[in-house]
CMP/dCMP-type deaminase domain-containing protein (Peribacillus saganii), 67 residues
Amino acid sequence: MTSHDFYMDLALHNGKAISGQTDPNPLAGSVIVNDNRVVGYGAHLKAGEPHAEINALRMAGEKQWSN
C-alpha cells in the first residue's frame, strides 16, 4: 500500500464513520497531509454544516503550509 492509498483510505473511513447523519448530502471525509504527516482530517458531520474539507482545513490551520 502506498502512502497515497493510506491517506485515501483514511479519508474514506472518516466519511463512513458518520454514516446516517448527513442525509440528504453524501458521506464525505477529507485528510490534509504535509510532508508525509497528517495535519488535519475531517468529515461532513451533518446537513447544513461545513463539509469535510472545511473541517480538515480548520484542524490543520497553519500546519498545512509549513514544513
